[in-house]
Amino acid sequence: MTFSAKAKSKLSPLSRLGRRSVLAAALLAGTALSAPAAQAESAAVRAAPVPDLVCRLDAEVNFSPPLSVRVKETEVTGHIGYLDCRSPSGAAPELTDIVFGVDGTGRFGVFPPTFSVEGNGVGTWNTGEVGSLYFKGDLKQGSPVPDRTVTSGPLAGDGVNGLQIPTPRFDKITPDGVAGFDVIGQVCFWPGEKSRCTAF
User: Fold this and answer.
1) Who's near 50: CB < 8 A, 6+ residues apart?
2) Are 162 and 54 in contact (CB under 8 A)?
3) Cis (ω within 30 of 0) for the bond into 112?
């Protein structure tokens, strides 16, 4: 009994040292695992997309003949203006405004009532450079702007998104249907991945 008690007394410090070593190793492992996670999170914040341009949207689209339950597809003309532009990314600080003359197709869906547009536009930037774009999407109150891509000129390849507020023009509403919309809002030009335009 005496020998056994002495043995336990001698082994106790080693056991405590062992437990401390295991605890220290666990803490070091936890730190090693958490460091890359923190670095990855920081890198993700740093890599958040920044738009090449942020512009005020001012557009007008006209349907000829007017869209209605009887006419579900028609010609679209008008203009898309990107005004008072600024360049958060610094890629194009010289570009401040452009107005695209547009033409394409307008469509009306009955259930639910939906107006949509698709077409192309060509315009001249304030620098004198010519640019063009492709657009497609719905005209809905407070909805994202129709998908747009810059197809030539400055910032060619950039995607465009944003928020729109389309409003029927009362002088364009006829008994035959809706013949036009004014559209205001904000748009962003993105060189790659897009983010929320309203954040800028």
Assistant:
1) 88, 89, 200
2) no
3) yes
For the question of whether the overall pTM of this predicted structure is more than 0.90, the answer is no
Q: Which helix (H) or strand (E) holds 98?
A: strand 98-109
Please name the residues in contact with 188: beta carbons below 8 A apart, sequence gap of 6 or more.
Answer: 51, 53, 54, 55, 160, 161, 162, 194, 197, 200
Give the closest residue to 156 by CA, choosing from 99, 199, 92, 97.
Answer: 92
Could you write out the DSSP letters of every residue in 141-163? TTPBPPEEEEEESTTTT-EEEEE
pLDDT tens track for 101-116: 999 999 999 888 899 9
Q: Based on the number of CB atoms within 10 Å of its own CB, is 17 exposed (0-12), middle (13-18) or buried (19 or more)?
A: exposed
Nearest to 119 by CA among 139, 99, 134: 134
Please state, in angstroms and rounded to a whole number, the distance separating the CA atoms of residues 111 and 69: 10
Question: Is 187 in a helix, a strand, or coil?
Answer: strand
- pLDDT at position 4, please? 46
Kindly tell me the burial class for residue 63, based on how many C-beta atoms sit within 10 Å of its own C-beta (0-12, 13-18, 19 or more). Answer: buried
98 in Cβ contact with 124 (< 8 Å): yes
